[in-house]
Amino acid sequence: MHEKRSSYDKEALLACGRGELFGQGNAQLPLPPMLMFDRITEISEEGGEHGKGVIRSEFDINPDLWFFECHFQGDPVMPGCLGLDALWQMTGFYLGWLGEPGRGRALSTGEVKFTGQVTPDVKMLEFGVDMKRVMRSRLKLAIADGWVKADGETIFVAKDLRVGLFQDEAK
């Protein structure tokens, strides 16, 4: 069992991506460039909008990030799906942090509403996930709501994010 901390720096997130934090075969974050945050600033089984747990992270933005060059040429903007992926990544990390076994997979989201965008002049994104329900029986599933802020302004929200953990079948 890993040490359950309340925050994680970039090196710990990279260790998670290599399968070292929660153990091989369990929840992993993607490695860069698909890792969509630089640090987890808060994680707790208490608090959040629904009182069932919270996770917060930050992502430093600079004009050299890979997606600005290709999405869209001459009109650089971060794809909204990457922000949504960050929220799914955090939700899966939360399940691993709880000590639940299995590989994480994004399953769905109920609703996504964009009200802003991320351009190269943005300095930092903040991501927040508020747990609504965590199923810890045979099925390991988290249902949560999330939001993304660019330099302190909310630019999108997602409702009913669903991430599950799946164990490899015995061979």
Automatic annotation (TrEMBL):
Matches recorded under Pfam families: FabA
Molecular-function annotations in GO: (3R)-hydroxyacyl-[acyl-carrier-protein] dehydratase activity; trans-2-decenoyl-acyl-carrier-protein isomerase activity
Record InterPro entries: FabA, FabA_FabZ, HotDog_dom_sf
CDD domains assigned: FabA (cd01287)
Keywords: Cytoplasm, Fatty acid biosynthesis, Fatty acid metabolism, Isomerase, Lipid biosynthesis, Lipid metabolism, Lyase
Complex and partners: Homodimer.
Function: Necessary for the introduction of cis unsaturation into fatty acids. Catalyzes the dehydration of (3R)-3-hydroxydecanoyl-ACP to E-(2)-decenoyl-ACP and then its isomerization to Z-(3)-decenoyl-ACP. Can catalyze the dehydratase reaction for beta-hydroxyacyl-ACPs with saturated chain lengths up to 16:0, being most active on intermediate chain length.
Protein name, UniProt field: 3-hydroxydecanoyl-[acyl-carrier-protein] dehydratase
